[in-house]
Amino acid sequence: MARALGTDDSVNTCDCCGKTNLKFTVTIELDSGDVVHYGQICAGRNTGKTRPQISAEIKSHKAAQEDAARQVWRTHPAYLAERARFAERLRAGVMPGRAAMEFVRDAVQAADAARQEIAHRFAVSVFCLM
């Protein structure tokens, strides 16, 4: 059965009826695996679901994506290295401030880059990984 994955405000034309200038479209994954963008009315008609059902499906999909991204992030070598560097800073007695930031800068930059890549891969906000 087709499932709603999210909404997309960068696509404003319905793939079903061709209506244009929509505020957003609903991204639907069809049984065949194809991904289409439908307006809200066509999304309901083609999936047999109500708007609240579609909204709940989108929310559930987003939560699952965020959980998967967090799981990957928490086991990523850059995350582990960043945590280790902060612990090392504490053990070394480096007080908060400019010296502390210099001490952890490389690890933080590597972790930020990895966080960006994971967020992009899972189509989630970087902030859900912080």
Can you give a write-up of this model?
The chain is 56% helix and 12% strand. The protein has helices spanning 40-47, 51-74, 77-92, 98-122, and strands spanning 3-8, 25-29, 35-38. The two termini are 34 Å apart. A hairpin with a 5-residue loop joins strand 2 (25-29) and strand 3 (35-38). The mean pLDDT is 94. With 130 residues, the protein is mainly alpha-helical. It has four helices and three strands.
Low-confidence stretches: none
Oligomer: single chain
Structural domain count: 2
How much helix is in the residues? 55-70%
Main sheet: strands, sense, barrel: 3 strands, antiparallel
Count of runs of 4 or more consecutive helical residues: 4
SS elements, strand count: 3
Structural class per helix/strand content? mainly alpha
Rough outline: elongated
Indicate the mean pLDDT: 94
The span between the termini is: 34 Å
How are strands sequenced across the largest beta sheet?
1-2-3
The amount of beta strand, in percent, is 5-15%
CA radius of gyration is: 21 Å
Q: Helix and strand string, N-terminal first?
A: EEEHHHH
Q: What labels describe this entry?
A:
4 helices, 2 domains, single chain, mainly alpha, three-stranded antiparallel beta sheet, 130 residues
Task: Write the topology of this structure.
Layout: E1 3-8, E2 25-29, E3 35-38, H1 40-47, H2 51-74, H3 77-92, H4 98-122
Antiparallel strand pairs: 1-2, 2-3
